[in-house]
Design goal:
Strand 5 and strand 6 form a beta hairpin. The chain has no helices and 11 strands. Helices cover 0% and strands 51% of the residues.
Length: 118
């Protein structure tokens, strides 16, 4: 049974940091491209950052470039998102995604709420 379980969300003030984690199980973590998406109220879900499974190439949305860092620990089957200098516009539900290239295999977590407010 595939599971992606996010944690680490919460309420923080502008300028503060959070680290999200996504614990993966039920599939071969090292074979999947892993990503973080987010969805704010009334908006579509958007890609925040992704990391490939072999070389570990990363990709970021322009809005988070230089503030967020995605990483993965294959030994722990865990994906991370370090979020620094948080802004109110980063407020959203953050979702973990696992996708295997060239297949229809695509899994989602339940999401974790991040709220940035003074």
């Amino acid at each position: 049974q595939v599971q992606l379980v996010e944690s680490g969300g919460g309420l923080v003030q502008p300028g503060e940091s959070l680290r999200l984690s996504c614990a993966a199980s039920g599939f071969t973590f090292g074979n999947y491209i892993m990503s973080w998406y987010r969805q704010a109220p009334g908006k579509e879900r958007e890609l925040v950052a992704s990391i490939t499974h072999v070389v570990g190439t990363t990709n970021y949305a322009d809005s988070v470039q230089g503030r967020f860092t995605i990483s993965r620990d294959t030994a722990k089957n865990t994906l991370y998102l370090q979020m620094n200098s948080l802004k109110p516009e980063d407020t959203a539900v953050y979702y973990c995604n696992a996708r295997r290239r060239a297949t229809a295999l695509n899994y989602w977590g339940q999401g974790t709420q991040v709220t940035v407010s003074s």
